[in-house]
């Protein structure tokens, strides 16, 4: 069964002054266990598409299914975890209490919560920070806590909106490596919004390229995952550069512009 199926999704925002057509008849399928990134110029509707999948917004037309369920049912059944650019941690709770929050909200007993948070903090390498508060952690560590929290209920799907967007380049590359390892270990499917072409290629099985408003999917680049994963350093592999070039060309074909479609990082 597919993790995500979006069929003919259109989203029109009606504001007092005008109507904004953010998405226009978008079709997207994400297989179980697949890592798909969404990339495109600023304002093309990437976050809107993610919010439709998460049932944080409803499509104006079209349908969204998550593991064969309507998006709303999937949300109620906690079929996915979410992580955004702002980690969204609660400052008055410890790291462990933040990770346990979804479990607590959904009635998991204290002992089971503790066992799960211990396991998750090990997974993201933060076991010794369990009793600290978020403001005692670096931005990268806070993002790792947010990822641990998103994984708390064993979701088979993770929805991530620029989770590393606010981090410095070195931290970002390290967390990209960690995310690949974590996703490999959990087998979760991921829909990942990013502005960075190398980040999308490093992480993904497929990179979905969107057009400026109204957002449509204009290209889908299959990343040469197998060739890349065999390399000593993925970012130095020929297959990595080939896929980066393919995504860049897909974006520029759309823009008809010189490198650097607005809002897309090429570094
Ligand atoms: N709640 C809203 N009300 C009105 N317009 C909205 C709303 N949310 C998004 N939009 C508009 O829809 C379009 C798509 O927004 P969205 O945030 O999905 O783009 P994006 O591709 O994620 O952008 P960025 O890369 O800059 O984060 C934009 O023009 C935005 O202004």
Cα shape: globular
What sequence of helices (H) and strands (E) makes up the elements?
EEEHEEHEHHHEHEHEEHH
Q: Ions, cofactors, ligands: which are bound? A: adenosine-5'-triphosphate
Overall pLDDT score:
90
CATH superfamily of the largest domain: P-loop containing nucleotide triphosphate hydrolases
Report the sheet-strand fraction. Answer: 15-25%
Structural class: alpha/beta
- Residue stretches low in confidence (pLDDT < 50, at least 5 long) are 256-260
* CATH class call of the largest domain: Alpha Beta
Keywords: ATP-binding, Nucleotide-binding, Transport
Domain ABC transporter: 4-237
Protein name: ABC transporter ATP-binding protein
InterPro entries: AAA+_ATPase, ABC_transporter-like_ATP-bd, ABC_transporter-like_CS, ABC_transporter_ATP-bind, P-loop_NTPase
In short:
The chain has nine helices and ten strands. The chain is α/β, with parallel strands linked by helices and 267 residues long.
Topology:
Blueprint lengths: L3 E11 L4 E12 L4 E5 L6 H8 L7 E6 L2 E2 H6 L3 E5 L10 H11 L4 H14 L15 H12 L6 E5 L7 H18 L2 E5 L3 H7 L2 E5 L6 E6 L2 H5 L8 H18 L12
Parallel strand pairs: 3-8, 3-9, 6-7, 7-8
Antiparallel strand pairs: 1-2, 1-4, 4-5, 9-10
Helix pairs in contact: 3-4, 3-5, 7-9
The structure holds adenosine-5'-triphosphate.
Pfam families: ABC_tran
InterPro entries: AAA+_ATPase, ABC_transporter-like_ATP-bd, ABC_transporter-like_CS, ABC_transporter_ATP-bind, P-loop_NTPase
Keywords: ATP-binding, Nucleotide-binding, Transport
């Amino acid at each position: 069964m597919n993790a995500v199926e979006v069929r003919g999704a259109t989203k029109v925002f009606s504001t007092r002054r005008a109507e904004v057509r953010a998405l226009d008849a978008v079709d997207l399928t994400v297989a179980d266990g697949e890592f798909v990134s969404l990339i495109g110029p600023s304002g093309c509707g990437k976050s809107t598409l993610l919010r439709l999948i998460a049932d944080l917004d409803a499509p104006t037309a079209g349908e969204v299914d998550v593991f064969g369920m309507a998006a709303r049912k999937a949300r109620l059944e906690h079929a996915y975890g979410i992580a955004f650019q702002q980690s969204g941690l609660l400052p008055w709770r410890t790291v462990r209490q933040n990770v346990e929050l979804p479990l607590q909200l959904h009635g998991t007993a204290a002992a089971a919560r503790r066992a799960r948070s211990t396991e998750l903090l090990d997974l993201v390498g933060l076991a010794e920070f369990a009793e600290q508060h978020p403001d005692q952690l670096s931005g990268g560590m806070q993002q790792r806590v947010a990822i641990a929290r998103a994984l708390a209920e064993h979701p088979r799907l993770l929805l991530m909106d620029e989770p590393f967007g606010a981090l410095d380049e070195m931290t970002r590359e390290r967390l990209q490596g960690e995310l690949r390892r974590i996703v490999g270990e959990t087998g979760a499917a991921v829909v990942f919004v990013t502005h960075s072409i190398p980040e999308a290629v490093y992480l993904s099985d497929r990179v979905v390229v969107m057009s400026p408003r109204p957002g449509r999917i204009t290209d889908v680049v299959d990343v040469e995952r197998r060739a890349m994963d065999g390399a000593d350093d993925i970012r130095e592999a020929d297959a990595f550069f080939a896929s980066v070039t393919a995504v860049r060309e897909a974006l520029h074909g759309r823009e008809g512009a010189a490198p650097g479609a607005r809002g897309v990082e090429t570094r």
